[in-house]
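Example 220, ligand fe (ii) ion.
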Amino acid sequence: MATDALNVVLPFHFRYARGAGDLEAIHTSGVNLVVWRREQEPQMSGLVDAFNAAHDLDVEAVLHSDDPEVWMFLADLPACGARDMLAADIDYLVRRFGRISGCATLRVHLESVSTDACRLFHVDAAALRLLVTYSGFGTQWVTNDNVRRDQLMAQGRSFDAANRAIVSRTGQIRSCRPWWVTVQKGESYPGNAGNGIVHRSPPIEMAGERRLRLCIDEVK
Ligand SMILES: [Fe+2]
């Protein structure tokens, strides 16, 4: 894993974190996305890929950010190394996101995803959200200069037609890789109305793919 060294980059609306400490940059005015491009050992990520392929997971709970009891949260999942690895990582991220958000309670959702339900590019209403795709294709997002915000929402169009209207240059859609951590800033974050990060879940249904996604939301 990377260090917590401060990531100094151009004052742009997204930041790449060199470590978990840099995720705090999400609070910078105008910043709407921080991406921590962390690496996982192929052997370890392979265990989670196999776990996700074998089990259709869907667990959700409200946890305390300073004592999340993640082992209880995952207790009903089959015992194996992949589950233990996920538990340790989720425990770490819940505590970290609790400090970033200042929330004592967080909604944590770990689920296998095999549909294209969220394939429309959109902004979240939520103030802050942490996402990790442990297996499969990660969240896709676009830079602010590649978005026509007046075209957001389906507006009676098919999702494909709407996406073509929303994103100016489809060849510049950015994709997260497995194990990367993103902290997203949405429309209800104070002072961020009109600047929510535009993103979507990658379309996977046609290919018969399955993702394993962790979502951590603030509970206020
Ligand atoms: Fe979203």
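Summary: The chain has a mean pLDDT of 93.
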